[in-house]
Design goal:
The chain is mainly β. The protein folds into two domains: 51-148, Tumour Suppressor Smad4; 161-281, no CATH class. Helices cover 11% and strands 33% of the residues. A six-stranded antiparallel β-sheet has the order 18-17-16-15-12-19, with no helix packed on it. The longest helix has 19 residues, at 28-46.
Length: 295
């Protein structure tokens, strides 16, 4: 869409407000719902432990890994002045944390003395001053994801930019059953590939053309869809976007609302490990709906 059109609709402003463009193509009730969902999304990003606060991804090695501000620690944390907070001990299949006596460390609002560390969901989240972190497992390796509530990107966040709302990008999809034990290989930004069970195929049409997306099941009441399209790398994030349509029984229908397409965490942080769209989910069209490239 040319800048002239944007000038007429938006005054060529860089950041659009939720539902601001082409409201005439959608009902007021839908726009209000979309605005509410987008506002909740922005607040989650802006939250003290949202993706805008991520400032580091530190891989842990087998044995003792000290953390703190001092440069001789195995892992150096920013902003704080505490020379050494404690240490993580990495075993073959487990993680243990011990803190330095006298250092103020908390977890879940309580004083944290250390002990075995949960790397599943939810993980053991630890806090010291403005920093929060937790240990996660990627493949056979453990890593600390570090967040800072005072991160520059969080403090300077101005909001998200969206494509104009389009009624034609809110489509009905038929939920089709995959073959027994059918998997899809998904590669993340680190180059690691994992096979995931396909929860459903979502078959739909746009402008009379038929398409299908593979959906995953991450629990809850919604599917998880990683898709790509021809806007990737130009007006949308190069690594694709996410959708979360409601689950439905095989043979029934669900709604694919591309106006709700979200950027993955990697669009906001270099320290996220996001899945990339599988080849089946690379749509050969431009999906000019949902979140634009974050700048």
């Amino acid at each position: 869409m040319s800048c002239l059109v944007f000038f007429i609709l938006l005054g060529c402003s860089k950041k659009s407000v939720p539902g601001s463009a082409l409201k005439s193509t959608a009902s007021k009730a839908y726009i209000l719902q979309l605005d509410s969902l987008r506002e909740a999304r922005v607040e989650k990003l802006r939250g003290p432990q949202g993706w805008l606060s991520v400032v580091g991804l530190h891989w842990l090695e087998e044995g003792i890994n000290t953390i703190g501000a001092a440069p001789d620690n195995k892992i150096t944390f920013p902003r704080i002045s505490t020379e050494t907070i404690g240490a993580y001990q990495i075993g073959e299949n487990d993680v243990f944390f011990g803190k330095v006596e006298g250092v103020d460390v908390n977890s879940d609002g309580q004083e944290y003395m250390g002990g075995p560390v949960d790397v599943g969901y939810p993980p053991t989240i630890v806090n010291h001053e403005s920093l929060y972190w937790y240990v996660m497992k990627r493949g056979e390796r453990f890593a600390i994801r570090l967040k800072d509530t005072l991160a520059e990107q969080r403090m300077n966040f101005k909001g998200l930019e969206y494509f104009p709302v389009q009624r034609g990008m809110r489509v009905t999809a038929k939920v089709r059953e995959p073959k027994p034990e059918e998997n899809v290989a998904i590669t993340n930004v680190l180059g690691n590939t994992t096979a995931y069970p396909i929860a459903a195929y979502l078959d739909f049409t746009i402008d009379g053309q038929a398409y299908s997306l593979q959906a995953l099941d991450e629990g809850g009441e919604k599917y998880f869809v990683v898709f790509g399209d021809e806007t990737n790398g130009a007006s949308s994030y190069g690594g694709g976007r996410f959708l979360y349509p409601a689950k439905a029984s095989f043979g029934e229908t669900t709604t694919l609302d591309f106006n709700l397409a979200e950027n993955p965490p990697c669009a906001f942080s270099d320290f996220a490990t996001c899945p990339l769209p599988p080849s089946q989910n690379m749509l050969p069209i431009s999906i000019e709906a949902g979140e634009k490239l974050f700048r």
